[in-house]
Write a structure and sequence with these properties.
Blueprint (H helix, E strand, L loop, with lengths): L1 H11 L1 H38 L8 H13 L5 H18 L2 H17 L3 H17 L3 H18 L2 H18 L2 H17 L3 H18 L2 H17 L3 H18 L2 H17 L3 H15 L5 H17 L3 H18 L2 H17 L3 H136 L5 H6 L1 H25 L8 E4 H18 L3 E5 L5 E4 L1 H18 L5 E8 L3 E8 L6 H6 L21 H11 L4 E5 L5 E8 L10
Parallel strand pairs: 2-4
Antiparallel strand pairs: 1-3, 4-5, 5-7, 6-7
Helix pairs in contact: 1-2, 1-14, 2-3, 3-4, 3-5, 4-5, 5-6, 5-7, 6-7, 7-8, 7-9, 8-9, 8-18, 9-10, 9-11, 10-11, 11-12, 11-13, 12-13, 13-14, 13-15, 14-15, 15-16, 15-17, 16-17, 17-18, 18-20, 20-24, 21-22, 22-24
């Protein structure tokens, strides 16, 4: 079939034709590849989300990607569009994602529209609009109203279509949605084109063109120029039509937009058809037909099939013309497009008349006559309804403007009266308060001085408490081990202890010195936070490195008690925190766990990476705690301390210090414990998150 259609053209210029077809096929392959790349990207992003450890089908990003993917399948695979739209609608309802529900209903409306099921399309668009209206989403409302108006246009109810288009423009103008205004102008132009009112259609198309030239979006401008080209072709202004369609084709070929390119090729075929250059017309119709094999656009295909029928009839190829006319008729019946039925039956009646098959010719002619009369009568009524609707709409707007002006004038009178009363009241108030001004000034100064004294007193009390606590810790927890160390050195120096006896005490001395060092570090960190001198400096922090360093630091203590330290932190686990403060937190929690875990015990440290935070835990199978002890652990002024399994002693500062530093890093800390069953300490820290770019 393809060779027979192109044969006359190839006989005249075989080499040139081969080159043109070769480039077209190359472009078509690249176009399909370019359009599918966005679908592939969305599919990959959906797979990545599904494979993530924190995946949830209720994730709004996942649902939004489903909706975007569904939109990519429109004009390409309507069954996939339906499946994805239903899935996104179901997930949006479960997740309570309103914008997802609105977009899913909108997408379903597009599916039913392309299938020619106008009532179902209107039903879904109406559901989407009602939801958008309830939640005051003007951008979605405007887009949905435009599509709803378009469906009423397909249905033949031009009055309702124009009403909704005007309502869409009102919303778009209030919010300066220029793209939507231009699209609606294009669609209103189509209403007038249906009635052959080309001059009025061109008014709206020119408005749309002006907007796109102002915005500077070449794709939207090309869409409007292609509609202008089609209108010029209908007006037999063929040079203007050819210029505009060539500009549009250049843009759509560059951007690889197949559905619009197929439309432009069909327009170019129509221009050559009107020039009576049927071979060239068929060539461009054929390019459009090749693209229609890759897209699903039945409405656009009907005009193409009817155009090809006419071209073949002009070339006296009635048998081929009959095939295309029958396809146009069947497709028009399928989606209920009466203009397509009228055009195809008119040609079929002529074809069968020429074949002397008068029975079929009469049958198709009767269908044509009935459809023509119906459209003619309907179009007259539509024209009147459109005019009436527009007049009513303008009258309503004018009435609202008048009422608003009256209300504004009335409001201004009330404002003037209120201003006069306010001035009088202000004068009276000034006179009343002038005598009290000095008294209030004195009272205010006294209150300020009192507040300053109370603030300074509280600060001094806090400093005094900090000082007392420091001296208490130094006196009880540091002086004892240091004094014992001094006494031991004195005995060794004075010869009352042999070298062998002294060396036997070295392991014990090392433990005491490590304890003193650890206590001093905690004491300095705690004192700094109490004196408001600690500054948290956030940066990208590798958690696994900090944990490994602390395990190495405390390994000797663990080996002394035969305790197993298990690190379950994943490599390159990154968080957003102050690394020095995280180091202190980890060291204190591990040290506590070692202190209260008996010999041959086990301590596990790990992290659970969630969407926004990293939850770090330290678990032991040690002594555990009662509820009373747990309640006092993280109190700021708590000095609670307990001896470990080997009589280790601490300052009671560690957990208080951990809590302060966790909170400075925008996290929280808690514990689960039971007496005799061990303890599990948890804290959260914000983590680095992968950024996803959303489609507009």
């Amino acid at each position: 079939m393809n060779r027979r259609i192109l044969k006359p053209f190839l006989q005249d210029s075989l080499l040139k034709g081969c080159i043109v077809v070769f480039f077209f096929l190359s472009f078509s392959t690249n176009s399909i590849s370019a359009q599918s790349s966005k679908r592939d990207t969305l599919i990959q992003e959906l797979e990545d989300l599904k494979n993530s450890t924190s995946f949830s089908a209720k994730d709004t990003l996942y649902i939004k990607n489903l909706i975007d993917l569904a939109a990519e399948y429109r004009y390409h695979n309507l069954d996939t569009l339906l499946t994805l739209s239903k899935k996104s609608l179901d997930l949006s309802k479960k997740a309570g994602y309103i914008n997802g529900e609105i977009s899913s209903y909108h997408s379903l409306g597009g599916y039913y529209s392309d299938k020619g099921k106008i009532d179902q399309a209107i039903s879904n668009f109406t559901k989407a609009y009602n939801l958008a209206n309830q939640h005051n989403n003007d951008l979605l409302k405007a887009g949905i109203l435009n599509d709803l108006a378009k469906e009423y246009g397909y249905k033949g109810e031009y009055s309702k279509a124009l009403k909704w288009y005007l309502a869409t423009i009102e919303i778009a103008e209030e919010n300066d949605y220029k793209n939507i205004i231009s699209i609606v102008n294009d669609n209103i132009a189509h209403l007038y084109l249906e009635q052959k009112d080309y001059e009025q259609a061109m008014v709206f198309l020119q408005r749309s063109k002006d907007i796109h030239e102002d915005i500077g979006n070449p794709i939207f401008l090309a869409e409007t120029l292609s509609n202008i080209a089609s209108t010029y072709a209908e007006m037999n202004e063929l040079d203007y039509a050819m210029y505009n369609v060539n500009v549009s084709i250049a843009t759509f070929e560059k951007e690889r937009i197949l559905e619009w390119l197929a439309y432009c090729y069909e327009i170019k075929g129509k221009i050559y058809l009107k020039k009576n250059k049927n071979t060239w017309a068929l060539y461009w119709y054929k390019q459009s037909e090749l693209l229609h094999k890759e897209i699903e656009d039945d409405r656009g295909k009907i005009d193409l099939l009817n155009g090809m029928t006419e071209a073949f009839l002009n070339l006296k190829k009635d048998s081929v013309a009959e095939v295309y006319a029958l396809n146009a008729f069947d497709l028009s019946k399928k989606i209920g497009l009466r203009s397509g039925i009228k055009n195809s039956t008119h040609k079929l009646a002529k074809i069968f008349k020429d074949k002397k098959d008068f029975e079929k010719s009469l049958w198709y002619h009767e269908i044509y006559q009935a459809t023509y009369e119906s459209l003619s009568a309907t179009n007259n009524e539509k024209a009147l309804n459109m005019l009436k609707t527009r007049v009513e709409y303008d009258q309503q707007r004018q009435q609202l403007i008048i009422e608003n002006e009256k209300a504004l004038a009335k409001r201004n009178i009330y404002i003037y009266i209120f201003i006069v009363i306010l001035i009088i009241f202000a004068i009276i108030t000034f006179l009343i308060h002038r005598n009290e001004k000095e008294q209030k000034k004195l009272n205010l100064e006294l209150r300020h001085k009192k507040a300053d004294l109370e603030e300074k007193q509280a600060y001094l009390n806090e400093l005094n408490q900090t000082k007392n606590k420091l001296f208490s810790i130094i006196g009880h927890d540091l002086r004892g081990p240091i004094g014992a160390f001094q006494g031991l050195l004195k005995l060794f120096k004075e010869g009352e202890m042999s070298k062998e006896e002294f060396l036997n005490f070295v392991p014990k001395l090392k433990v005491d010195i490590d304890t003193i060092s650890f206590t001093l570090n905690n004491l300095l960190s705690w004192g700094q936070t109490q004196m408001n001198g600690s500054i948290t400096r956030h940066s990208v922090t590798n958690l696994d490195c900090i944990v490994e360093e602390n395990i190495a630091l405390l390994s000797e203590i663990a080996e002394a008690k035969s305790i197993t330290l298990v690190n379950r932190i994943e490599p390159n686990c990154q968080i957003w925190s102050d690394p020095n403060q995280i180091d202190i937190i980890i060291r204190n929690l591990l040290s506590n766990a070692l202190k209260f875990t008996p010999n041959n015990g086990q301590i596990i440290i790990g992290a659970i990476q969630k969407i926004k935070t990293c939850e770090i835990y330290v678990k032991d199978n040690g002594l555990g705690m009662t509820e009373d002890i747990i309640d006092k652990l993280f109190e700021k002024d708590s000095n609670h301390t307990t001896y470990g399994t080997n009589d280790e002693k601490g300052t009671g500062l560690g957990l208080s210090l951990c809590k302060e530093m966790v909170e400075k890093n925008n996290g929280k800390i808690w514990v689960h414990s039971a007496l005799g069953k061990g303890s599990s300490f948890y804290f959260t820290i914000p983590r680095l998150q992968k950024q996803y770019k959303e489609s507009a």
